[in-house]
């Protein structure tokens, strides 16, 4: 019998979890539609680009929508069981609240593993893929701005002339380049072919020239040099107004091992490592929040609904609000060095975890807790505020 009940509760949670996850993730993706449309109009992207753009964006949403969806699902499931007196029937049959928690905890473990994989691997992959896509679009934009038999001077210190251009491949033919450096030295390149390329890290843009000649004048000793080359990489300075942040690798694009190496490198220089330590441990602390939400959601869902407007979703908003404010405040103090970096990351999980254990224990003993009313109040206020906005008050 307990096995059937566990499976029953598991199904009650799984369905609203899947629906909430799809709705929240789809809603979050709508914020990227304008960017996708802009790329479609400006760069003429195809279906392949659109697919990878969406695929690389989804992990950055899932790391937040998965824990929130789980919290909403547990609240909806337990509230439904409680309102239909099924929880009361289970207790009357000798099933304790700790037994009811087992299927919730099992699902939390499954979701935690999935969230951890997304946070550690898919999240940095998505950010790297996104930068790669936008970098490619930026390169296409640069190529699109170049016209045959016209001078192009958007790069600092460089004037580019292209005799022929192949838009379908991005290859330049009959390339002439005049480069002037800050110290007064000047170089002139003549090349049969050229192509824009980026470094493996994606932080540097080059013009790869093939089969050409370079003429270089040194203003210090007034020497003139002439050399032939088969391949020459000319580093370019990103034009003013271009998205320069796309050309540098951020913490979000680093895998855990790479981020750990960065922390060790910064520590060796004697610099502050707190922001990087916080970012690393946050990848474990955020997925772990599902266990905290499980402890809070079960007793919260068992409370009697005092208003028809009070739903599992509004209760979840109250819990998320408390979690977000607490996490943000602690992380800010950790980045400033006011508290230990590890405490700033795990502090919200620890404090809400202790609160969840206390509330759950009280509910298991059928004793009321004042903390529950506080979370209920937060959810109710959010719901009422949302309804006033709809009415235009």
Summarize the structure.
The chain is α+β, with helices and mostly antiparallel strands and 393 residues long. It has helices at residues 2-29, 33-43, 47-83, 86-92, 97-145, 256-268, 274-301, 312-335, 341-364, 370-391, and strands at 151-152, 158-166, 171-180, 186-198, 205-218, 223-236.
Q: How would you portray this structure in words?
A:
Strand 2 (158-166) and strand 3 form a beta hairpin. The protein has helices at 2-29, 33-43, 47-83, 86-92, 97-145, 256-268, 274-301, 312-335, 341-364, 370-391, and strands at residues 151-152, 158-166, 171-180, 186-198, 205-218, 223-236. The radius of gyration is 29 Å and the shape is elongated. It starts with a helix and ends with a helix. It is 62% helix and 16% strand. Helix 3 (47-83) packs across helix 8 (312-335) and helix 8 runs antiparallel to helix 9. The chain has 393 residues and is of the alpha+beta class. A 6-stranded antiparallel sheet has the order 1-2-3-4-5-6. It has 2 domains: 2-139 and 250-391, no CATH class; 155-238, no CATH class. It is built from 10 helices and 6 strands; from the N terminus they run αααααββββββααααα.
Properties at a glance:
393 residues, alpha+beta, 2 domains, six-stranded antiparallel β-sheet, 10 helices
Secondary-structure blueprint:
Elements: H1 2-29, H2 33-43, H3 47-83, H4 86-92, H5 97-145, E1 151-152, E2 158-166, E3 171-180, E4 186-198, E5 205-218, E6 223-236, H6 256-268, H7 274-301, H8 312-335, H9 341-364, H10 370-391
Antiparallel strand pairs: 1-2, 2-3, 3-4, 4-5, 5-6
């Amino acid at each position: 019998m307990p096995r059937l009940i566990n499976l029953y509760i598991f199904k009650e949670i799984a369905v609203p979890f899947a629906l909430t996850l799809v709705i929240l993730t789809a809603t979050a993706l709508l914020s990227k539609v304008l960017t996708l449309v802009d790329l479609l109009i400006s760069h003429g992207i195809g279906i392949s680009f659109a697919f990878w753009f969406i695929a690389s964006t989804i992990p950055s949403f899932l790391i937040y929508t998965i824990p929130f969806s789980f919290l909403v699902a547990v609240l909806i499931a337990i509230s439904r069981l409680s309102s239909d007196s099924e929880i009361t029937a289970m207790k009357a049959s000798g099933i304790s609240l700790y037994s009811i928690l087992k299927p919730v905890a099992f699902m939390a473990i499954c979701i935690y593993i999935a969230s951890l994989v997304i946070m550690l691997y898919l999240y940095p992959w998505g950010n790297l893929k996104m930068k790669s896509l936008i970098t490619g679009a930026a390169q296409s934009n640069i190529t699109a701005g170049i016209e045959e038999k016209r001078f192009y001077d958007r790069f600092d210190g460089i004037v580019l002339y292209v005799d022929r251009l192949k838009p379908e491949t991005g290859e330049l033919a009959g390339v002439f380049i005049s480069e002037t450096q800050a110290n007064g030295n000047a170089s002139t390149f003549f090349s049969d072919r050229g192509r824009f390329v980026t470094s493996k890290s994606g932080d540097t843009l080059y013009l790869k020239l093939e089969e050409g000649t370079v003429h270089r004048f040194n203003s210090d000793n007034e020497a003139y040099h002439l050399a032939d080359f088969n391949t020459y990489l000319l580093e370019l300075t990103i034009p003013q107004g271009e998205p320069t942040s796309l050309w540098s690798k951020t913490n979000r694009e680093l895998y855990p091992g790479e981020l750990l190496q960065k922390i060790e490198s910064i520590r060796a220089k004697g610099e502050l490592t707190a922001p990087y330590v916080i970012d690393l441990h946050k990848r474990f602390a955020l997925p772990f929040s599902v266990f905290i939400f499980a402890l809070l959601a079960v007793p919260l869902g068992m409370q009697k609904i005092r208003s028809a407007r009070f739903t599992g979703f509004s209760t979840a908003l109250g819990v998320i609000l408390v979690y977000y404010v607490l996490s943000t405040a602690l992380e800010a103090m950790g980045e400033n060095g006011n508290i230990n970096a590890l405490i700033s990351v795990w502090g919200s999980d620890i404090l809400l975890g202790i609160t969840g254990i206390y509330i759950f224990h009280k509910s298991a003993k059928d004793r009321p807790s004042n903390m529950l009313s506080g979370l209920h109040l937060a959810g109710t206020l959010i719901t009422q505020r949302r309804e006033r906005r709809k009415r235009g008050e």
